[in-house]
Amino acid sequence: MKTKFIVVLFLTFSTIGFSQKQALKSASKALKSGNLEQASEALKAAEGQLDVADEKMKAQYYFLKGQVVSASGIDSLDQIEKAAGAYNKVIEIEAAAGGAKYTAESTLKIQTLRQSLIENAIKDQNSKNYKGASEKLYLGYKTNNADTTYLYYAAGNAVNGKDYETALKYYEELKTLGYSGISTKYTATNKESGEVEPFDSKQTRDLVVKSGSHIKPEDTKSESKKAEIAKNIALIYINQGKDEEAMKAIEDAKSENPNDTALMQAEADMFYKLGNIEKYKELMEKIVANDPENPDLLYNLGVSASRLGDNDQAMGYYKKALELKPDYPAAQINIAALILGKEKGIVDEMNNLGTSSKDYKRYDDLKGQRMDLYRSAVPFLEGALQSNPDNVEAVRTLMNIFYQLDDPKADEMKSKLKALEGGN
Question: What is the pTM of this model?
Answer without folding.
Answer: 0.60
